[in-house]
Amino acid sequence: LTPLAKLWTGKLAVRIASETCEAFGGAGYIEDTGIPLLLRDAQVYPIWEGTTNVLALDTLRALRGNGIEHLRAAAQGLLAEAGGDEQGIGAALDAARGQLAALAGERDALESVARGIALTLARGFAAALLARHAAWTRRHLGDGRAGAALRLFADHGLSRLQRPAMDAAAMLADNGGS
Questions:
Q1: 3-state helix/strand/coil string of the chain
Q2: d(CA 123, CA 9)
Q3: Contact at 8 Å (CB) between 96 and 117?
Q4: Exposed (0-12), middle (13-18) or buried (19+): which is 17, by Cβ within 10 Å?
Q5: What are the tens digits of pLDDT across the range 156-173?
Q6: What separation in angstroms does the CA of 148 have from each of 16, 153, 160?
Q7: How many whole angstroms separate alpha carbon 88 and alpha carbon 75?
Q8: Exposure string (b/e) for 134-143, b if CB count within 10 Å is 16 or more?
Q9: Which of 10, 112, 117, 19 shows the shortest CA–CA distance to 28?
């Protein structure tokens, strides 16, 4: 989970800091508020913690062998605590697992979609954590806000899977050799 967490939160921090700047309007650009510093610091995270592509490749290395099954089992455990999977979380994780399996022998093709796989796994696991939290807050506090947040998050799509890039020979064949 380490490369997934670094990849996703590094990218997310930039978006959140940018939205914060915008929310404060003109004051968001004034140095006295400290907001521009937050934005500049956030811009460094996707670089400092490892670029998204490097972390995606780290994810592939971590998933070699049975890594994807361990991640899937952990997510299933969270969903079991939540009482089920009403948001398609398991399906998104299974789709990423399927793409990994389908491209296991094609290293170049797998690396070309590594970013999409990593982002799908990160979003799927985050949704599983949110599902567990939503179930807990509903049971113990009678609060449905975390469930509403989960539905909004899932509505934006958990999957970021992409089609593998074609190699040059396949592209030429698809274009009639030209």
A1: CHHHHHHHHHHHHHHHHHHHHHHCHHHHHCHHHCHHHHHHHHHHHHHHCCCHHHHHHHHHHHHCCCHHHHHHHHHHHHHHHHCCCCCCHHHHHHHHHHHHHHCCCCHHHHHHCHHHHHHHHHHHHHHHHHHHHHHHHHHHHCCCHHHHHHHHHHHCCCCCCCCCCCCHHHHHHHCCCC
A2: 10
A3: yes
A4: buried
A5: 999 999 888 765 455 556
A6: 20, 9, 22
A7: 12
A8: bbebbeeeee
A9: 19
Residue tagged 């998104």 (tokens): 92
Residue type, 69: E
Residue 9, token pair as written in the block: 């939160």
**Structure tokens, 114:** 């590594």
pLDDT in tens, 11-62: 899 999 999 999 998 888 888 888 899 999 998 888 877 788 899 999 999 9
